[in-house]
């Protein structure tokens, strides 16, 4: 599941016109990494929510900016797994 989420996230970043050529699991989503600004982070979060049926809390956006691609994809995969376990 994690690989699927990572692939989806990278595809969405490319679709949002971000350079994903040198992207790896240690690249941060915010400044000094992908450099997503708050609106772009919100856009990515909505895309992930729509695709995987998740909901991010409003106060999570600052935390997302500090996450690496690997941390974000792991968190999403864990939430998807927890959601499917509960259904």
UniProtKB/TrEMBL annotation:
It comes from Micromonospora solifontis. This is Acyl carrier protein. Residues 1-80 form the Carrier domain. Gene3D superfamilies: ACP-like. InterPro entries: ACP-like_sf, PP-bd_ACP. Pfam families: PP-binding (PF00550). It comes from the Bacteria.
């Amino acid at each position: 599941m994690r690989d699927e989420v990572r692939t989806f996230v990278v595809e969405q970043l490319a679709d949002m016109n971000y350079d994903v050529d040198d992207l790896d699991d240690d690249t941060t989503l915010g400044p000094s990494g992908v450099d997503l600004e708050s609106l772009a982070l919100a856009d990515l979060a909505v895309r992930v929510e729509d695709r995987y049926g998740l909901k991010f809390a409003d106060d999570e956006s600052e935390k997302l900016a500090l996450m690496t691609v690997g941390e974000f994809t792991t968190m999403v995969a864990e939430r998807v797994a927890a959601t499917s376990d509960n259904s």
